[in-house]
Amino acid sequence: MSSLVGTHGQLGVNSCAALSQASHEPLAGTAPHVAVWICIEQEGAWGAHPLTEPGLGSGAGDALAALTDNDFVMALAIRRVGRHPRATGTRTVMIARSDLTDAWLCTRDVDSDDQLATVLGDVDLDAVMTGRVPSGWERATESVTLICTNGKRDVCCAIEGRRIIDEVSDLAEHHYWECSHLGGHRYAPSVLLLPAGLVLGQISATELMQTHTGNPPLARVRGRSCLPAAAQAAEIAADPQVPFGTATAVTVETIDEHRATVQVHGLSGSTSISLVHQAHSVPSPISCEAVSQSRSHWLSL
Q: Is 72 left (phi over 0), alpha (psi -120 to 50) or beta?
């Protein structure tokens, strides 16, 4: 049996997620920096890159590529929890704008790759980035939770993502979806809450339920995707002076390769957070197929 997979489908001791957990690698400030998320329902078996393997058709693929050419836009394949027969009917598409004070999620159903190409081609990305919901899309009234199960990209996501989905599916009525790679296999299970852009790692089912009630365990928070890495770490460190999730602005005042000063503003006041960019004491691999190397993180002083 591979050393990456233990008995009963558990993580093996040499898997990237097990090594990261064993080394107590910090999670704060490790969320991808994404302002707009585009999620496209893609049933059937996934490859390592399910939006291109086998892909969406040339028209839809080109339209999506044009949207994701922006560094702050990320596209994910999503599928409903459960069995994954290849679907030929209606698919759901989501666009989420993650922002501290004006986050929203909108959805639209499409019946074909050609319609998907038209719908994506009509999206005015500049308008979305500034807060305008695309014409013809329905604004959602509830949040969704995406859990990475993209095992073809990394086995840790298949094992840990599937485990937490099995645990939470029967615990609460909530909108759960499986998703493709979020970034950070070694933090599996990797979870994204939209539209908030809240990215969590190494989280248990109980802790995820706690997050849904508005109290995310800070030790499991990687950051909010609308912020750059230093600002993500500062928002977490600012709690309880500015309770996490209540910040109205996070401003990076000074930054260089090794240090940063970040101002975190909330409704009840502000606080200044000093950070140092420091290498973690134990090298670890970025994924199960990679070699171990030193990892640096923004840590509060």
A: alpha
Q: How many helices (DSSP H) and strands (DSSP E) are in the chain?
A: 8, 14
What separation in angstroms does the CA of 272 have from each of 5, 129, 152, 229, 260?
43, 27, 42, 16, 10
**Cα separations in angstroms, 209 against 90, 174, 213, 271, 280:** 30, 10, 7, 29, 30
Q: Domain map of the chain by residue range? A: 1-226
Q: Is the pTM of this model over 0.85?
A: yes
Question: What is the average pLDDT score of the chain?
Answer: 90
pLDDT digits (tens, 9 = 90+) for 178-204: 999 998 889 999 999 999 999 999 999
For 79-103, what is each residue's pLDDT tens digit?
Answer: 988 665 566 678 999 999 999 999 9
Read off φ and ψ for residue 75, nearest 5 degrees.
-105, 140
Give residue 203's identity as a one-letter amino acid code: I
CATH superfamily of 1-226: Glutaredoxin (3.40.30.10)
85 prior amide bond cis, ω within 30? no
Laid out side by side, the sheet with 259-266 consists of 247-255, 259-266, 269-279, 296-300
Which of these, 125, 134, 129, lies nearest to 63 by C-alpha position? Answer: 125
Ordered alpha helix ranges (H), 103-215: 113-121, 125-129, 155-156, 162-168, 205-212
Neighbours of 289 (CB within 10 A): 12
Collapsing DSSP states into helix, strand and coil, what is residue 63? helix
